């Protein structure tokens, strides 16, 4: 997949994130399972992670991140054409978490769907969103990665529960005629490794039953060592490939934002690419692995910390369950200073979201009234009622 050939380019024009306030440190975890701060830090680089509160869900966290991203972009909800939510922990099997966020935003002109590609989900969603813009089908696409992994964690399994965390990130993609934005993308998969990282229960193969719950099949199961090997194999290769596709020398890339799973995996990629570790954005020490949310959260923090500036070339690279992996080369072009909302605009945005809530409740009430009414009977060609 290469840059648009028809003059339409997909630019990242807004970004937002949300992480729950509850911090779970390695010392806290050592009270729950047989582990230690020393083991977790040396094997993963993680010091702490955020854990969803009782009211936090993938939709509620994704919604906050989305509102912030729209605010940065100066985009109103009704201008959004498409909402894609990458998540391994959707609110329900269906309806899609994306539809819940669409409703809460009042994005009345948007299509909405969820995308499942494990921790690579956000990268896949970004690719789909960018292509929807480059093809001319859509102008504004909201791409969200949101996860409440703590709800599918086996808190007795030390080999997984120390790794993951909760949070959400979002970006706004907008069509533009000026070059830049998403320059190239690759998305790959190898389903033969599906069982290396899996939630076995609760799907059509193994529907939820007392037995599946007793066996803990609704929790994440992972062969960490094999996933580690796979990740170390694909990270540098996909970064090189995506740079070559865009015709950019990897040495001219100012920043690499990798999936935040393990510091050792990132260091292995840095060595293989012959790049200094400082060229990689790393925040996994604070959040652990937030799956689909890790890259968009990292984008937000890289911008906040001044590590991603207009004109910079940046590679985003992720891997995860499936097995899946993907990379994207972005020419960062977001204007500085960002669109700062005036007080009036803030009040207006709040009113819009309030209106979206009222609209949603009204629509539900209307549906209930409608369902209480008798169904209209079909008419024959002459307009007479059929008996
Ligand atoms: O987004 C993709 C998601 N997944 C990943 O990115 C995971 C990739 N894999 C990894 O990050 C690493 O494989 C882990 C961090 C999961 C594990 O590190 P490792 O160096 O591969 O350790 P290991 O699995 O080879 O286990 C070494 C030892 C084992 O003990 P024995 O068999 O050598 O006696 C484990 O039982 O460490 C033990 N162990 C722990 N010890 C203390 C496993 N988890 C823990 C723990 N605390 N939390």
Concise overview:
Helix content is 37%, strand content 20%. It is an alpha/beta fold and 387 residues long.
Can you tell me the CATH architecture? 3-Layer(aba) Sandwich
Query: Which ligands does the model contain, each kind named once?
Result: oxa(dethia)-CoA
What general outline do the C-alpha atoms trace? globular
Distance between the termini: 57 Å
The major pleated sheet works out as: 5 strands, mixed
Average pLDDT score: 93
Number of strands: 13
CATH superfamily, please? Answer: Thiolase/Chalcone synthase
Report the helical percentage. Answer: 25-40%
And the CATH topology?
Answer: Peroxisomal Thiolase, Chain A, domain 1
Number of helices: 12
Strand order of the largest sheet: 1-7-6-4-5
CATH class annotation: Alpha Beta
Order of helices and strands: EEHHEHEHEHEHEEEHEHEHHHEEH
Share in β-strands: 15-25%
Number of domains: 1
Descriptive overview:
- By secondary structure, the chain is of the alpha/beta class.
- It has a single domain (9-331), classed as Thiolase/Chalcone synthase (Peroxisomal Thiolase, Chain A, domain 1, 3-Layer(aba) Sandwich).
- It contains twelve helices and 13 strands.
- It has helices at 26-32, 37-44, 58-73, 97-105, 121-134, 158-161, 210-214, 224-246, 263-273, 284-287, 294-304, 343-372, and strands spanning 9-18, 22-25, 48-51, 82-86, 111-115, 140-147, 167-176, 181-189, 197-198, 221-222, 255-258, 313-320, 324-331.
- It has a five-stranded mixed β-sheet, with helices on both faces. Strands 8-13-12-11 form a four-stranded mixed β-sheet, with helices on both faces.
- Strand 12 (313-320) and strand 13 form a beta hairpin.
- The longest helix is centred in the last third of the chain and has 30 residues, at 343-372.
- The protein is globular and about 65 Å long.
- Bound molecules: oxa(dethia)-CoA.
